[in-house]
Write a structure and sequence with these properties.
The protein is of the alpha/beta class and about 350 residues long. Helix content is about 40%, strand content about 20%. It has helices at about 1-15, 65-75, 95-105, 125-130, 155-170, 185-200, 215-230, 240-255, 270-275, 290-300, 320-325, 345-350, and strands at about 30, 40, 50-55, 80-90, 110-115, 135-140, 150-155, 175-180, 205-210, 235-240, 260-265, 280-285, 305-310, 310-315. The relative contact order is 0.16. Keywords: Signal.
Length: about 350
């Protein structure tokens, strides 16, 4: 009898144990951001299921954004407590995203997940939704307000630095490099570049040419072809995105020249040309699984779990020795790594 009482007391204590924000896992590499970062208290947004969750995305302008939304939809489909998962696409129009969010609020969503179109445009409507008591998860792109519930972001400085660290290591800290940047005026481009600058500190590596390739295959190829004439034979290439890296490798192949060490990104198309060319490269990682992680954060809030206010993703890069464990020659070029999608969904979505 005493043993039974003790067992019952232990069970009660276990169930009554407090929940801690650090115990909630959203995605590999997603960690609480440094600095002032309050915890959303346990139970603040608890709501009995079934739930209706709104998912507002700024647009499907590239394959990464498409996959990010697919990962979010799959994560939602696997949770029986989510009765409705409403996806809206703003088609790169700030006015439409504002209207989309207002409509989702009017539909009575229990939580709102937003990939904002710009730093400023949708901040007021996000603040309005938060003030109405709706838990709002902002992810993938930033806003200029902190009046949301939870934020999940990548770390572009980390992204650029791991690329730069690779170039430094390959060149033993000295040499001449090309720098292929993304789109001028976009904060992601500047912050990735800032990461490169950090990696180059204290080295004898010189940036001999710096051009914007807009993260585009076509523009990247034009830039690399021009640089091959104006600034030939670099010791290395820091490229801010997979499509530009892909294009540059092909330029060197077409010219019949050795391919210098070049940074890359976690994209299946790039992995294919990297392997076929036997190039010296690596892949920085900006996982589209952020969409699924944002859904998990919304669910955690509705379940009454505590979360940090701000998270940042700093996953490890994919180096050459791990490339083939990710590369899928049976699937098309649009797949991004790492992914949380199961095998059957990968074959359905990315079949050649």
């Amino acid at each position: 009898m005493l043993r039974t009482v003790r067992a019952a007391l232990l069970a009660t204590l276990c169930f009554a144990a407090p929940a801690f924000a650090q115990d909630v896992s959203l995605m590999d590499g997603m960690v609480p951001r440094e600095g002032v970062n309050p915890v959303i208290p346990a139970g603040k947004f608890t709501k009995a299921p079934p739930w209706k969750i709104g998912f507002s995305i700024w647009g499907f302008g590239n394959t990464w954004m498409i996959q990010m939304a697919q990962e979010a939809e799959y994560a939602a489909s696997q949770n029986p407590n989510i009765q409705e998962f409403i996806v809206t696409n703003a088609d790169s129009n700030p006015t439409k995203q504002i209207a989309d969010i207002e409509d989702l609020v009017a539909q009575g969503v229990d939580a709102l997940v937003v990939a904002p179109i710009s730093l400023t445009a949708v901040s007021p409507v996000i603040e309005k939704a938060t003030a109405a008591g709706i838990p709002v998860v902002v992810h993938s792109t930033a806003v200029d307000t902190d009046k949301y519930t939870v934020e999940l972001q990548g770390d572009p400085i980390h992204f650029g630095k791991v690329m730069g660290d690779f170039i430094v290591q390959q060149l033993n800290g000295k040499g001449r490099i090309w720098v292929l940047r993304g789109q001028a005026g976009v904060s992601e481009d500047q912050l990735r570049y800032d990461g490169l600058v950090e990696a180059l500190k204290g080295t004898d590596i010189v940036i001999s040419s710096e051009q914007h390739g807009d993260w585009s295959y076509d523009k990247g190829k034009q830039v690399c072809e021009a640089l091959a004439l104006s600034d030939p034979n670099p010791d290395g290439i820091w490229s801010s995105g997979a499509a530009m890296s892909h294009a540059c490798i092909e330029v060197f192949q077409e010219l019949g020249q050795p391919i210098p060490p070049i940074s890359g990104e976690g994209n299946n198309g790039f992995f294919g040309v990297w392997k076929a060319a036997n190039a010296t490269s690596m892949a920085a990682v900006f996982p589209p699984e952020q969409g699924a992680a944002a859904v998990r954060a919304a669910v955690a809030l509705l379940e009454g779990k505590p979360l940090y206010h701000r998270y940042v993703g700093r996953p490890a890069p994919i180096l050459q020795e791990r490339r083939d464990s990710f590369y899928r020659p049976d699937l098309n070029d649009n797949l991004w790594f790492p992914t949380s999608l199961p095998e059957e969904k990968l074959k359905e979505i990315f079949k050649k």
